[in-house]
Amino acid sequence: MKQKTKNFLVIILILVVTINCSNSSSQDKNKKFTEWAMKNSQKMETIELSENHSDLNSLKQIVGTSEVVCLGENRHDIHEQFKLKHRFIKYLVEEMNFRTFVLEASFPYSNKINDYILNGNGNIDELMADMPGWFLWDTQEMTKILNWLRDFNQNPKNKKKVNFYGIDIVAPNNALDQIFEYLQKIDKTYFEKIQNNNFARNIIEDTHWQTSLQRYSDLSQEERQILIKNYNELYQHLKQNEINYIANSSDSEYNWILKLSYAANEANKMFTEKERFNMGLIRDNAMANISLWIKERNEKLIIWAHNVHIAKSEFTMNMFPENPIQGMGYVLHQELKDKMISIGASFNQGAFQNENITFKPAEEYTIDGTLTKLKIDYFILNFKGKSENEEVKRWLSTDHVIRGQNFEMTCIPKKSFDAMFFTNTISKVNYNSTTLERLRN
Length: 441
Hints:
The chain has 441 residues and is an alpha/beta fold.
């Protein structure tokens, strides 16, 4: 009996030692990564604009000689991420001479925003309220960014001005308006020939592209083919008449119209596509193409878009778990290589009080949950930092989950992003009055 008791105690002791060793190993693993992250991160003292840039100096190291800096976000409606990105933009403009701000917003409409930033023309509240495609940019936070850019341009000390572009394709009616106006001016015969062609203008809702998508879904295959034919013929006609059209307008005006036709053509392809996964690829490839077109005309770009659009490597989403996605960031990186860097976004917890939405503390298995362990409200972490520790290398080089707009994205941190900025607690952006009313309705 005594021998059995002794054996039992030995087994218990072995189990306790094993469990403790396992827990210790797990803690060491987390500790090693946390230690590395602390060394390679910079705490941001505030989310408010400041003339003191010292807490953002790591941006210079992260960006280096890159000519395209992509700034991500988990959602399109996080107040703190908007504010921090405003600080990043200010730093990149003032300290690193970036002079082009690119937003995941309507490409056709962006000339109006650009006119406001460069020349002060228009009423910013009206311009933001009428922005097609993503009226969700109509926030106090984004308005302050655009006003800051306008004020920078109006300062006579700043000889080289900042300009603005959108890259999204989801508002083709706005593009067609400008194309047809151009054709009426320089090729009235062709305009009269095509003005009654079906371009689905009666079912496209520029202010809410998901409505356009739904209406397209009701079209027959024959109707879809007619639209594909009409949009493509318009685009090809503009391409084929380059010399004549430039002679009767200008090189810059013609190229703007040609790119509008490309964007409208790609939007129609996206809307007529039946598979949601393929729709996303069409959109991302088009945004990459437009971004490269903008880069040809400008030296240094800041691109503001969702994390899924700026990831430099393949990733998956929980709604398409079996389909690796090569998004806009992937396409850009294939072309730009080291000239491009991507800075992703992460958060821990928060609440949108007016919508009764609560974001619980991030789970430990997510990137968000891991970064929460640093216990810093705001920081930017440089993934380029070197480490000889195998656990740190493994964490940076294996798949991890990051939360998105009501979905999860799975990616390899160091391949998808060069750095990541973190906010511990989040709240809702402040919509301007017109959009707030739209959302309520």
